[in-house]
Design goal:
This protein has one domain. Strands 1-2-10-9-8-7 form a 6-stranded mixed β-sheet. Helices cover 29% and strands 33% of the residues. The termini are far apart. It is of the alpha+beta class.
């Protein structure tokens, strides 16, 4: 498990031989080091925070967004909802890439903002897109424009996802929010 703490961009974390508990512990070590306990976790001088849930900072939800994918499930009332409960190997083995990209160490990153419809209203998302590796980090500027929320980071493993990112790039705003 400690070996994963030594991994650097663009290698992958080794997770396949772990039990679920060992895998979670290894990923939690990376997450805590790079994100949760990293006082320098900023993008272009703005602090990056997890979304707040009921007034509290929710690191568990963020950890879940960075290591799991969602599926549509039916609740006890027969209502279909999205549940984020499936381990996502593609996201997880790249967890340590987030800090590398946030620092903009890599050349040729596409950093841009675009306006999108979400929940019936327009929102601005800022993307850090590594086209060479098909990897994206999604930030949302806080209303104050002083900080960001880290929404997610993931590998674009489907052609439709890469096409969607190219469309976002084409409709990018002139400034990065």
């Amino acid at each position: 498990m400690a070996l994963n703490l030594l991994k650097i961009y663009n290698t992958h974390l080794e997770l396949s031989h772990f039990t679920e508990a060992q895998r979670t512990n290894s990923l939690r070590g990376i997450f805590d080091r790079d994100i949760a306990n990293n006082e320098k976790f900023q993008f272009r001088t703005k602090i990056i925070r997890p979304l707040k849930k009921e007034g509290e900072i929710d690191m568990e939800t963020l950890f879940s967004h960075l290591t799991k994918k969602s599926e549509e499930v039916t609740d006890e009332n027969g209502v279909k909802i999205k549940a984020r409960n499936i381990f996502d190997n593609d996201r997880s083995k790249r967890l340590h890439w987030i800090w590398h990209h946030i620092q903009e160490i890599k050349e040729n990153l596409h950093v841009f903002s675009c306006e999108e419809r979400k929940g019936g209203k327009n929102v601005i998302h800022t993307y850090i897109f590594d086209a060479e590796e098909n990897y994206v980090i999604v930030l949302e500027p806080q209303r104050s424009k002083q900080d960001y929320y880290l929404l997610s980071a993931y590998y674009l493993n489907e052609e439709w996802a890469r096409k969607s990112m190219r469309k976002k790039w084409k409709k990018r705003l002139q400034e990065v929010y």
